[in-house]
Amino acid sequence: MNDRLAAGTYRCRDVARSVAAAMNVGVTWVDTAPNYASGTAEASLRSVLEACPQVRVSTKVGFVPDSDRPAARDAGVLPHDRDRGHCLARPYIAWQLARSRARLGRAPDLVFVHNPEHDRADRADPSRTLTEAFEELERSADAGDIGGYGVATWSGLSSGMFTVSDLTALAETVGGPHHHFRTVQFPVSLVHLTVVADALDGRGALVEAQEAGLDVFTSAPLGGGELLGAMTDELVRVIDPAASPVQAALLVTLSAPGVSRVLLSASTPAHWADAVGAAACEPLSPDRLRKVIDVLGT
User: Fold this and answer.
1) What secondary structure does DSSP assign to 219-243, as a single string?
2) Quick one: which of 11, 176, 231, 273 has the fewest CB in 10 Å?
3) pTM to 2 decimals?
């Protein structure tokens, strides 16, 4: 069993095959979204999840897949002013969650509000849009339709649009002391080192998540694969001389304070074996992480 790695399905060409390879090395969590694989990712996972009921799954709400748009319009859940590819209106979230449950064949363990920075409904005050989303997700969690919820963001935290503390406070306002806000997801990697540097100094998103008792799922630990071209022999030696380039890159993310799971869209058994090797390594010390940051800068 490997609880530090999770199978991501973003940009996977064959979702079922990639996830099956992850499960074969003990990965117990799969992360997906209705818009992944041109809208087919969730349905592709159903048979895999039915065969492995112990594996947990998270999905997302927000992006409107092109394949779902006509049905959403016909159902009257896609307001005209939000029909731009992203929608966090309560009726649309409820409708999208019902479709996700049907496609996955089960209630998702977690549902992430997907890149709320893309929602154009109220960019001047994103808390209004997030409040609407949190209200529907709290209702769904109370009804047992989802296990809990979180926020998955690419730039919302780094841009200052909101903080983890803001999100936690909003969840407490909407759901009270027993709210169902459980997790945040954002990039942590060799090209997103500022958040690691902040954590080593006792501040920022990772520290706020730890203090709030939230799990942290990190996305794009290999920069969509592009990071591997920047893994020089010198950089690998600074991180861990015994590691492969992939393992060295992953080890930085795995060693960041407060990281719970690292999402990886690996497609072959060999890629997953390399990742499992990284997860088995001793985490880098704070001093070693600072050295890596000094070498690369933030």
Assistant:
1) E-TTGGGGGGGG--HHHHHHH-TTS
2) 176
3) 0.95
